[in-house]
Write a structure and sequence with these properties.
The protein is α/β, with parallel strands linked by helices. The protein has ten helices and seven strands.
């Protein structure tokens, strides 16, 4: 569905049908997908440029849709190393498309589930590519609103960050219902039903709940904001206004 919203070609008819149903109930869905993707690119470039990060772990990478994270990082620092992780077998089939980065850097793919963080950290593809003794940017964009409270999402983030050294960063986006206009409750319920029927239940969270993912970290400016409001590009035009995209985005440093 995410690939469909971004205008990609790596999706199935069922994905397109579900995506159109969501867009009919919530027209901002396409803008939200684009805002999240653009945030990922800006945050990656900022980390590679301003913070000098050279290692990236992208969990929930999905089917390749350009620009990919390694393209954003290696455009700034060609020596950047990127490891992608996803549990979707369809993504596994497409993984080779992700492994054509700049020759100076390297990319790898881990087939694992975010709800089992140890399996990610123990994967040989990770240790062969990334040095966990050096700072890593942990990118978990649009993934934890698919992880219910019963799966301990905050503990998952703490486990992953616990394996990373100081000066590592957390990059996270998450869906919310905080900006839901009055009278739109039925539309929101319809969207949640569509995601549940597609096999990917959605758990939007409040500002306070999303903020908990950053406990113990140092949020960088402008803090936790809608994704289109995080260091927007000066030339950006026609982007949705503050609050129009139903999500939060943030980048934080591990002290």
């Amino acid at each position: 569905m995410y690939d469909y919203y971004l205008g990609g070609r790596s999706h199935f008819d069922a994905d397109a049908k579900a995506a159109e149903a969501v867009a009919a109930a919530m027209p901002v869905a396409r803008a939200a997908a684009r805002a999240n993707r653009d945030f990922m690119v800006r945050a990656t470039r900022w980390l590679a440029g301003e913070r000098g990060v050279r290692q990236f772990l992208d969990i929930g990478s999905r089917i390749p849709t350009e620009p990919n994270l390694h393209q954003a990082a290696q455009a700034v620092a060609p020596e950047s190393k990127v490891v992608y992780c996803d549990n979707d077998p369809v993504v596994l089939e497409h993984a080779q498309e992700l492994l054509h980065g700049a020759t100076e850097g390297s990319t790898a793919y881990v087939h694992a589930d975010v709800t089992d963080p140890e399996s990610i950290l123990d994967a040989p593809e990770l240790s062969d590519t990334i040095d966990l003794g050096r700072p890593v940017a942990l990118s978990v964009n649009t993934i934890f609103h698919f992880v219910g409270d019963d799966q301990q999402p905050y503990d998952i983030v703490r486990t992953l960050l616990g394996a990373l050294p100081a000066d590592s960063h957390l990059v996270l986006t998450h869906a919310t219902a905080d900006f839901l206009a009055a009278g739109h409750a039925e539309r929101a319920e319809s969207v949640l039903d569509i995601y549940a029927e597609s096999g990917s239940p959605l758990w939007p969270r409040t500002f306070a709940e999303v903020s908990r993912f950053f406990d113990g970290l140092e949020l960088v400016g402008p803090g936790l904001v809608p994704p289109q409001s995080w260091h927007p590009d000066a030339e950006r035009t026609g982007a949705p206004g503050e609050g129009a995209v139903p999500g939060y985005a943030g980048v934080a440093r591990k002290p």
